[in-house]
């Protein structure tokens, strides 16, 4: 099955080809009678600069698909290619490289390291790349300003609200200028107003940084902000 | 099923790993401490038995010395047996009986003025310690004719020409009873004279000067014995004079508690024996060292127990800390569950009841298994740690005390498991520690530890001394553990600034792994303290234990070295000293090169600053030790200044020329010395002299030979028996008691002395020796053989010096072959040695004077090293002179130096002098006592035991071997528990660190599982995260290890000397030197650090998994 329903074409989709290519991916958890078919013959292409909203009911396979694209899970069949790298066959080292250079995650639970300040959390990806201190600090400050948390740079996650934490998480995701942003229900733990603000932020940074984003969400606001909406039901892509 | 059961079963199902971890920690800690309890139990119950089983029989035997008073001997023996049986209870015993009959008159030979006497006896030493020369041993009391069957000494048979079958009509000394003996055999006694100490003649067989009955010792007769009879021959009424019943208990397999009972019964044994003997018409007393032996063993056991408890408590502290870590693991795992259950309406009390139930279940399971595991661990310890060899093997089953200990430990650990559930936030021990820090409770603990340390140092040992000896003091025993804990807590405070520094450095770093580790430590410091505390305690306990063990071992060995004083010593030299010297040196005839034996004086003396012949002031008792100071390498005992330096000048005389070998050599192997001795006086007086001659052998052993009384102006041929000796003997001194009576005749002649002074002289001339090979058996025979078999002795008559003492005044003596007109006038030959002394004749009327001459130049004061106790009490400083009364002489001494102790005399007032100098000094001071108390042996550790045993057998002395005592001091039954416990601590710290760090690391990884997954999602490699975790724990472990080493070092310097005590609980002499081996500390610390990091790395590799998408999305805490 091929991807469906494009709301808005991506800016360089035609010129560069898809940044994300998912072909006939199957993923099953368990075996026998207890087997759960999380993904079944899913195929999807996401063009560079495109913001794709992945929607579907709980258990439809959204997270599995995102994890498979981000290299956190491996398909049982099919292949996943991100920025020309076949994720499904990457070894540990390749996956690390993919996450450092290409992909960034934003989690529903924010995923901040509790003992680090907002600035230090944002700086984690840059430390992985051994970015010089001055350059790192400048980049961190820029990103925090970008998400509107410049004054909160020295606060730890426990001292920030949920929305602020998620904005820190987004800033951290942008730190190493990834080409693909994967956000798994980023507003799931936020109230609607905060969620909208976060969605707007994602939309804004995607456009500002020129990156591609795949966002799983139930939020109609996010759906409205997406370039394209992909529907998943029982592990299969369905037409909208 | 109640809700609690459901929850617990659910936990067991879903949290099996964490519960198993906690259970393992509990089990390991309980097992280790149970092993300590096992060690204490076995030591308390079996060590004394094992120790007493190893002491010589003489230390545990009971001897009843009974004066039968001619009553029924059988009744007296039965009374003694019954008394000892009541004392020793069910312990198996081995009894021997010595019976000595009354003295009987033998037929008087025609040549004797008085009839010789003899005594029948039965002894358990025969026939083993006797050589049957002819005939047989008596097999029954009397023959068909009613004659008593006796086996007589061979010397008696030779003297009186007795043969087997000779019939001897005998009569009691009072003449009331006649009897007839028939000789059935002759014998010679063998074995040491010590073994014949219960024989009337000490195994000599003959005494030519036995006091004749009713003469008050003025007349003597020949006494012979033992006339060996069958034991039943003396069991009648009126036959036995004295009896000895020697009962030796075998306490090896005695039931527990037997010793306590025996010790109590010993208190009343004398009273019961007296009562029982009184009923039998006899009297007697008990001679035993069993009470002292048991008391000494108990004292030593108390000291050992203190050492074990001290290190055991260290382990308790460590185990509790590890348990608190495990509790943190459980608490963190339960935090979310607790909140959920609370949200569902469970009350705090219900949550706590759950925790209590769970902890109780773990404790119960542990108590069921841990004692058996402790038994297995003890068995391993006994096999590997030398406990088995010390007689402290594994008993059957598990002692009740071990069950109790395991139950107590498991309960304490269970409580520590429950404690976190009392915190509403479900916090951990670490949080609790943070609270303690905030409240300053940790500083209060430090203050408490300081007080404990002060008390410990003040008392000088972790025990107190009461009337019954050393007692374990709970507060003092807890001191070291408290100090360790206080120091560890203090160290944790010092770790915080370090962590903050690391935090600052981490901020400026470009990498992630190391800074993240630093941040985890500095920003989760409260959580990190648990890990660090365990490491601090473990490293400090392990390094301290090792240092303590080294110090303890070294100190015990040094105490032994000093107490023995030499490589080996044989004390209690008996019999004639020349013969003892011959036997001792003969025993070393085949000794390897380097072995050397020297005679030593080691006896009490009296010291006084103004003590002297005239002052007669009182002094105080000191131990006088006199050795060959020319061989300082023979002296043992640690000193700051080598013994060679300390004793180097002791042999030199003070203010007099050096002495050299002097005197007249007696040729061959002399058995008899025959000389003409003439005494005279001017003016002519009525009186007599009692001379004694000093002869000296090659080893410098001197013996005084008595000469019969000489009457003035009566030349007398004296025949003096010379004891058997080895090597040439030298006649080195002569001393005589001068007794004058009556009034001075009118002075005439121009050359007569004026006033009160007169001259008394003694001439020795025409000296011969009769060699032992000649075989003369009596003085008369020796005198008769002089013309044919005598060897003339050319007296060295020059170089003699001496003094004459009368009325307390010492005057000079003129010596030489021709000293004045008196000698020549009395027909003394030109080769004679003449001593001519000036005496206050008037003062001597009715009193005694002393004439002394010696072949060496007058020595003068004896140089001495005195102990501080002597110097303090007599207010002596180097250079001071004082008097010492030793033997029968008072010698002036000179303080050469002051030392804290002396070889062989670790405590109390003592002085060390050169043996030869002392001997000469006593002779010059008119002493005629033979100064020999011990033999000190210099030999290698390998050779010393055999050589010392040989000397001991030869001299009837008790051998003490330094190497053997060293072994006993560190590995004997009463000591082996200490090194075993200290070794166990090292192993236990390793196990507890592995378990504790493993639990801590598992808890850390488990609680940060989500965080680690997120970092992986951000691009962190799994290996980097593993490295980070290992690095984080390495930081904690290394910091803890450094603090632990510092604490261990501090404890080793401060506490170790206090904990190292002597076997009787006193401060050791010499004072222990705290040992700290850098290499060993490095190995221990490095080993613990590596082991801890290895277990963390292993757990990190296993537990840090690939990031799970589900985990990342849900933040699942499964």
UniProtKB/TrEMBL annotation, chain A:
Gene Ontology MF terms: ATP binding
Keyword ATP-binding: yes
Pfam families for the chain: ABC_tran
Family annotation (CDD domains): ABC_MJ0796_LolCDE_FtsE (cd03255)
ABC transporter domain segment(s): 20-240
UniProt entry keywords in alphabetical sequence: ATP-binding, Nucleotide-binding, Transport
The keyword Transport is annotated on this UniProt entry: yes
Protein known as: ABC transporter ATP-binding protein
Species annotation: Cellulomonas phragmiteti
TrEMBL record, chain B:
Domain of life of the organism encoding this protein: Bacteria
Keyword S-adenosyl-L-methionine (UniProt): no
Alphabetized InterPro entries for the sequence: ABC3_permease_C, Macrolide_Exporter_MacB
Pfam families: FtsX
Key words, A-Z: Cell membrane, Membrane, Transmembrane, Transmembrane helix
Topology in membrane: Multi-pass membrane protein
Family: Belongs to the ABC-4 integral membrane protein family.
Protein's name in the database: ABC3 transporter permease C-terminal domain-containing protein
Taxonomic path: Bacteria, Bacillati, Actinomycetota, Actinomycetes, Micrococcales
